[in-house]
Amino acid sequence: MPAPTVDVMLPFFGDPYLLRRAVRSVQRQDRADWRLTVVDDGYPDDSIALWFAGLDDDRIRYRRNPQRLGAQGNNRYCIEHVELEYFVMMGADDLMLPHYLDTVLALHDRWPGAAVVQPGVSVMDDRDQAVRPLADRVKSLLAPSGSGPREVAGEDLAVSLLRGNWLYNPSLCWRTAAVRSVTMPESADVFDLALPLQVVAEGGSMVVDDHVCFRYRRHRTSDSGSGAAAGNRFAEERRFFAAEAERMTARGWHRAARAARVHVSSRLNAAVQVPGAVLRRDPGALRALGSHLLTR
User: Fold this and answer.
1) Cβ–Cβ < 8 Å for 35, 84
2) CA separation for the pair 125, 28 (Å, rounded)
3) Looking at residues 154-167, what average pLDDT do you find?
């Protein structure tokens, strides 16, 4: 086996069947210079450890947290334990296509200074069927325009991400040194956006490609979706965007600061939830959603 160059970190608390499929998709990569670390955040299923013990693959490590860290805590743990030149924070229900690592590492070779690569992604539902719900149609509109691989950076990239997060974080391939050079804000409640923005603000660039090599699973119900419907996630988002507006202002990126204060896609998401809250006769959700729509 060649020496590994990319850490695939896989934080887990979910469906063991989907986890096993995610692991198999890593094993089926066209190249072998990877190492997979699964960090189980205390999922109550004793069969998981036994399954990993029976894999007989030295490239795969299974760890179980002695105490549950929660999703953000487990994500941080995974990033802190990256050791190789590149890393991927894969979702435990997503799938790499066999040429995924070939694709993203070739792009890193082509742009050796880039901090991260966002490859092409297809979206699937709970039954593996290709879907394109509203959230993903909006993402495609927000992503940088162009065809073929292109490098984006600076305030333009920050403005784009603050208007709406068009990234698929489990598909990102990071250059480890770029992440090690920044300090992740402890107060980052919107973790998926906090790390890319921190790296961009410190001068990191991103390569965006359209060639699909990763399958992202969009569940019909999810923690983020249920939180949005109830309105309780938006207070966290307001705190995050307010902090980003201050940080961008301090950097002199005034367009990015304005995009953070307006956080247009986050407000649109709240607006989409209003009819459901009306039908449910949920005054608490309506107050939370209204506050997010009107507060700056």
Assistant:
1) yes
2) 22
3) 94
Question: Which amino acid belongs to residue 201?
Answer: A
Dihedrals φ, ψ of 6, to 5°? -130, 130
pLDDT, tens digit, 9 for 90 and up, residues 14-23: 999 999 999 9
Q: Which of 295, 191, 202 is nearest to 247 (CA)?
A: 202
137 Cβ contact partners less than 8 Å away, ≥ 6 residues apart: none
Residue with tokens 């996630």: 233
Structure confidence at residue 241 (pLDDT)? 87
Strand partners, 96: 214
Both structure tokens of 42: 């205390």
Q: Give, for 191, the enclosing helix (H) or strand (E).
A: helix 191-201
Cα–Cα distance for residue pair 117/105, rounded to 1 Å:
9
Q: Nearest CA to 207 among 118, 146, 140?
A: 118
What is d(CA 124, CA 185) in angstroms, rounded to the nearest whole number? 32
Q: Which residue has the tokens 């333009």?
A: 156
